[in-house]
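As promised in the previous annual report, we have extended the structural survey to additional targets. Below is the entry for Type 1 glutamine amidotransferase.
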Amino acid sequence: MRVAVVENMRNTGLGALARALEEAEAEIEWFRVWRDGNLPQDIAGHDALVVLGGEQSALDDETHPYLPELVRLTRRFGDAGKAVLGICLGSQVLARAYGADNLLGAAREFGWHSIGVTGEGRSDPLLTDVGDQFTIFQWHADTFSLPEGAVCLATSPVAENQAFRIGRAVYGTQFHFEADTEVVGQWKGEFPGTIERIAPGWLENYDELAARHGGAADAAGLAIARAWVSLIERQEAGLLSQATA
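The corresponding structure token record, generated without further manual editing, is:
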């Protein structure tokens, strides 16, 4: 299983998703576009694509000139029937790729928050193991409209479209399900100035908040990670299925 991971910002971290991919013995190839702008040249070399978060918006083409190519790449993977996962900024890029609107500064959230699962989400493979609602980590200011043909899987009062699916296995999650307590602790140490500016007092209350919410969020995040990884189809298996159909 070969998975391309696009890192839009230094030291983003895979967290729970890393564990799920390791359990599946996946081979991960990193594309650190924040450093060199390089992306996969085609889709044939990977069975799945992951696009992680970042501080830029999905429309910041001028300052991040690789973004239009990334938008096209996510669509090519999705149209080929391959598994695609966009997290936070990645979900916004995915929404753009499928013709939705990016809504800049319209949904500011930070910290652990409760997410409601929609009726469609309760029967979707991604969220079947998290119940009617779950607690997960959020860090975003932007959001998006629902792409045409997409199914809304999760919602919250701040961001109506917290998770969506297009086709078989193209998923966007506004929330950071991959951000387990280890990743959140790393972010706390790496970005204290930014966190204090957007969430005054959060750092001071971190230990209490982590104790209250971290365990449940870690469990939900790992369940979601494992569910998405289970949807990745190896290219060889897909070719065999087509040959015998």
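Residues 237-245 have pLDDT under 50 and may be disordered. Residues 206-230 form the longest helix (25 residues). These points will be discussed at the next consortium meeting with the crystallography subgroup.
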